[in-house]
Design a protein that fits this description.
159 residues; globular; Protein Transport Mog1p, Chain A
């Protein structure tokens, strides 16, 4: 007569939040961002415990035409980005075989933004191009190009 083994004791392990500032300088340079600039975390005095944040600039430093904000969370999902009422012009994408969702918000009247939420194990990573020049460049093309280039730096689902 065969028996069954007992269960496994212990608690479930929470997914570890990926650090968006872990994107290498080489990957940043390859996608056209300034590898020398990264702004880690939130502004002084602001705490957002459910999101990790890192901002990168296009070449030109503070005079660059845009920044790329990368947020990471294990407390939020891509489904929330799809359901959020303030997210406009949303469309579903596949990037590197992953579920993704592109959308715009009314971030600031002086800034055109476009965001891509990318599914990761146990959460979501959101890339946001914050374009501050009115030169006809489509912020969605900018963020899509960067996400295609940087997707391999983001944790993949384990098989």
């Amino acid at each position: 007569m065969a028996g069954c083994g007992g269960g496994v004791d212990g608690s479930p392990v929470a997914a570890e939040r990926w650090d968006p500032c872990s994107i290498t300088p080489e990957a940043l340079e390859a996608t056209g961002l300034d590898p020398a600039y990264r702004d880690e975390g939130w502004e002084r005095g602001i705490e957002v415990p459910d999101w990790g944040s890192c901002v990168f600039h296009a070449p030109g430093g503070v005079y660059s035409p845009y920044g790329l904000s990368v947020l990471s969370s294990t407390d939020h999902t891509i489904a929330e980005a799809r359901a959020k009422p303030g997210n406009m012009e949303g469309r579903d994408l596949q990037i590197g075989g992953r579920d993704a969702y592109m959308f715009k918000t009314e971030f600031d009247p002086a800034i055109r933004d476009c965001q891509i939420a990318l599914e990761v194990p146990g959460g979501v990573v959101v890339f946001n191009a914050l374009y501050n020049e009115d030169d006809g460049v489509d912020a969605c093309e900018v963020v899509l190009n960067h996400v295609n280039d940087l997707e391999s730096a983001v944790p993949a689902a384990s098989n």
